[in-house]
Amino acid sequence: MTATAERAARVILSKDGLRATLSTRNLDPAGLSAEHLITALRELGARITPEVEARVVEVVRQARNGGLGDEPVVLAQGVEPVEGSPATFTLTAGEQPPAEADESDRVDFYRSQILTVRAGDVLGLYTPEVPHTPGVDIAGRPVPCRVPLRSVHLGSNVRLAEDGRTVVAEAAGKVQITSGSVSVIEVVEIAGDVDFNTGDLDVPTHLVVNGTIREGFGVRSGASITVRGAIEACRVEAAGDLQVNGGIVGQGRGLLLVGGEVFAKFCNEVTIRVVGNLIVAHECLNSRLHTDGHLTLLRGATLGGYTYARLGAEMPELGNEAEVRTVLALGLDPAAIIEARAIDARIRKRREAAEKIRSTVQPLLNQLKRLTPDQRERATELMYQADTLDQEVGREERRRDELLTRAGPPADQPASLVIRKAIYPGVTLIFGDQLTRITRVRKGHFRILRRRGERCEEIVLIDRLSGSVTSLPMYELDPELVPPALEAVPGSKAESTDPAPQPAKA
Question: Structural domain of residue 261, as residue ranges?
Answer without folding.
Answer: 187-334+413-481
